[in-house]
Amino acid sequence: MAINLQKGQKIDLTKTNPGLTKVIVGLGWDTNKYDGGKDFDLDASAFCLNAAGKASSENDFIFYNNPQNASGSVVHTGDNRTGEGEGDDEQLKVNLDSVPAEVEKISFCITIDDAVNRGQNFGQVSNAFVRVVAEDSGEELIRYDLGEDFSVETAIVVGELYRNNGEWKFAAIGSGYQDGLAGLVRDFGLDA
């Protein structure tokens, strides 16, 4: 049974699941009814970060247009442009054993495509979540439901996988950005 986390909580992943090497990080959301008349396209992404919390290159930003990092250890499985359906809207697969040694953490984010021009923000999004699933068994190990704490934000860092004493842990972050993807990219050391 999955462990449900609250914002700010951290949990062991590999220590409590010996032999776990491949995980799927699933992100999901629903959009509230609104009369903006424009499509609502949310995107999942990941940033592979060094000890300073920065991406070493653009290859460390994984999303639908750059579906894997250089080592192939983090792979985006595809863009869901509508968010329709149940379960995960987008997924990233992580091979924990293959993540390069210089990567200390992997931040998972959700952004709203073209949010400013479309007048959209996370106040119009509900039921957002991130979950970590063991790829081999399909068992959901960790789940973090973000709640309805966002209003004007257009990007959210939802959670992070990070190394600690040779093990992988997961942290529920839930940190919003008003300046969308550009803010994330800048904070993670890349050119916006």
TrEMBL record:
Start and end residues of each TerD domain: 1-188
Q: Which residues form a coiled coil?
A: none
The family annotation for this protein states: Belongs to the CAPAB/TerDEXZ family.
What is the name listed in the Swiss-Prot or TrEMBL entry for this protein?
A: Chemical-damaging agent resistance protein C
User: What is the species listed in this Swiss-Prot or TrEMBL entry?
Assistant: Paenibacillus durus ATCC 35681
